[in-house]
Design a protein that fits this description.
This protein is an alpha+beta fold. It has one domain. It has 3 helices and 4 strands. A hairpin with a 2-residue loop joins β1 and β2. α2 packs antiparallel against α3. The longest helix is centred in the C-terminal third of the chain and has 17 residues.
């Protein structure tokens, strides 16, 4: 999935005014809640937040933070994935960062609100 963040002009990786410009993309593929919170804070101040959320909603990107939303994989709990996609829709519509998160982290196998 990380390869999807590089390259073709249609994804946020190519947008020069994004808040994450110049950052290591690994930041957005966290393994812990603390790491996810760092990525979410970057997204919170992003000027292209709504566009990023709209892009993410059209892709199958997963196991990452995108547009201030933790988006688990399809292998995660189906409800958690649906909630993440619904949050992306809300961010795309409003241009405001998502404040409530539900996350599924691989090391714990737990869902945490």
């Amino acid at each position: 999935m990380r390869d999807r963040l590089a390259g073709n002009g249609s994804d946020p990786h190519d947008w020069p005014n994004r808040a994450c410009a110049g950052m290591d993309t690994e930041v957005f593929f966290p393994l812990t809640r603390a790491q996810a919170d760092v990525a979410i804070r970057v997204c919170n101040s992003c000027p292209v937040l709504a566009s990023c959320a709209e892009w993410a909603g059209r892709t199958d990107i997963a196991d990452c933070v995108v547009a201030s939303v933790w988006l688990p994989s399809d292998r995660a709990l189906a409800q958690t994935r649906r909630e993440g996609l619904a949050r992306l829709d809300a961010v795309a519509a409003t241009g405001r960062a998502c404040v409530r998160q539900v996350r599924h982290y691989p090391e714990s196998g737990q869902v945490a609100a």
